[in-house]
Design a protein that fits this description.
The protein is of the alpha+beta class. It contains twelve helices and 18 strands. 29% of the residues lie in helices and 25% in strands.
Length: 396
């Protein structure tokens, strides 16, 4: 392996420093936030080997539809068939590898390659191979169309999001998500998932952060920055009112004095199973690798981090409410107040993470350290990343 290649990846010795006990650990090195070569490696060997959030399904109309989407430079294709089923494929023709779909739009029946007119059904089956066996001969001896359809990618649905597993060998999604959903059920109840209703036009937000996606995770995980970055939020949910929690494939922070809805003047239905003695508790777990969740007594939210470059991340937010009444027109002012309150918080975070990214260009910093009391969740995430890099990073 050439020297330029090995320098794109952290050494095994450097990664073992991340795995040390928190008091003596070092953070992930700068190159894991800045290197284009590492960014591609991370797609395949970190995000690609688990279940990563791809998109919110509300961007796909409830009719046959084709949506091309880029996943860290990888061309993917999401198809909804006439039965409403969503599937994910690699967005390339099996013949000569041409990108099949360039623009989103209705699915006209078959997806036809513009190069040699090979055509595929919404389930990925290869349906037409004109002239493949010669002029006016669509078939060739020994060729099996069933073996050359679109290449599928495992997918799963959760909280209005479509998740994918590129490697195809991660545990089933239900097993992957179980530790987190079991913890959330302590607040929303086992029936809480069925009561969640996506908000309408006043319950979504898109932000673009000029930072690596991992910095968005790290910032979300901890409350240490609260007094200085979020003075309004800290006025009613103070640093000392927060706690952290660690789990299998997730970690996060919580507050015991959340009053965001009250401060915003919002009056919305609450989860019937939410514990009476925890009405002001809120929890904010990160579902590794790239989904941020929030649970409050009267709403939940999900933020999907879409890495676009080593130093650019798109953040897609959706807010979910409890029952049909929260979606009524009369509840519009309350929904708008909730969105406005969270917009302030998340925009303040953008400023912070962009300056963190700028710092990753400095030779005066290469990972930093962790507070044993305040950075337990951040260290948990770094260690989760390091574990997977140790297993899958190439060695010279």
């Amino acid at each position: 392996m050439a020297k330029s290649d090995t320098e794109a990846f952290p050494s095994l010795e450097r990664l073992t420093l991340v795995r040390r006990p928190i008091g003596s650990a070092r953070g992930l090195p700068n190159l894991t936030y800045t290197s284009p070569e590492y960014f591609r490696h991370e797609r395949d060997e970190l995000l690609g080997r688990t279940w990563a959030g791809l998109l919110f399904t509300d961007v796909i109309p409830e009719r046959p539809y084709a949506l091309p989407i880029d996943f860290l430079g990888l061309p993917l294709l999401v198809l909804r068939d006439r039965h409403g089923t969503l599937r994910v494929f690699h967005n390339v023709c099996s013949h000569r590898g041409m990108k099949l779909v360039a623009d989103p739009g209705p699915l006209p029946g078959l997806i036809t390659c513009r190069y040699h007119c090979w055509a595929y059904a919404a389930n990925g089956d290869l349906k037409a191979t004109p002239h493949f066996g010669g002029v006016n001969q669509p078939h060739a001896e020994g060729f099996d169309p069933a073996a050359h359809g679109l290449k599928p990618i495992r997918s799963a649905l959760f909280m209005g999001m479509l998740f994918i597993n590129l490697s195809g060998d991660a545990p089933e999604f239900g097993r992957h998500s179980a530790p987190l959903t079991e913890r959330a059920a302590e607040l929303i109840g086992t029936d809480g998932w069925s009561q969640l209703h996506p908000g309408v036009s006043d319950s979504s937000l898109t932000l673009l952060a000029q930072c690596n996606w991992k910095l968005a995770v790290e910032n979300y995980c901890e409350a240490y920055h609260l007094p200085w970055v979020h003075p309004e939020l800290n006025s009613y949910s103070r640093l000392e009112d927060h706690y952290c929690f660690l789990g299998e494939g997730f970690a996060g922070q919580g507050s015991v004095t959340y009053r965001g809805s009250d401060v915003a003047g919002a009056r919305l239905p609450r989860f019937p199973s939410w514990p009476a003695d925890r009405q002001h508790v809120a929890e904010y777990p990160t579902m590794y690798p790239n989904v941020l969740l929030g649970f409050q007594a009267d709403h939940a939210f999900a933020i999907l981090l879409r890495p676009e470059a080593p130093d650019r991340t798109r953040e897609e937010l959706r807010i979910f409410y409890v029952g049909d009444a929260a979606a009524a027109e009369s509840a519009g002012p309350s929904r708008s107040a909730i969105l406005s309150a969270w917009r302030i918080v998340f925009e303040q975070d953008i400023t912070a993470v962009e300056q963190l990214q700028a710092g990753r260009a400095s030779p005066g910093f290469d990972g930093g350290l962790f507070s044993p009391e305040m950075d337990a969740v951040t260290h948990h995430f770094h260690a989760w990343v390091a574990d997977r890099l140790i297993e899958h990073t190439p060695r010279g």
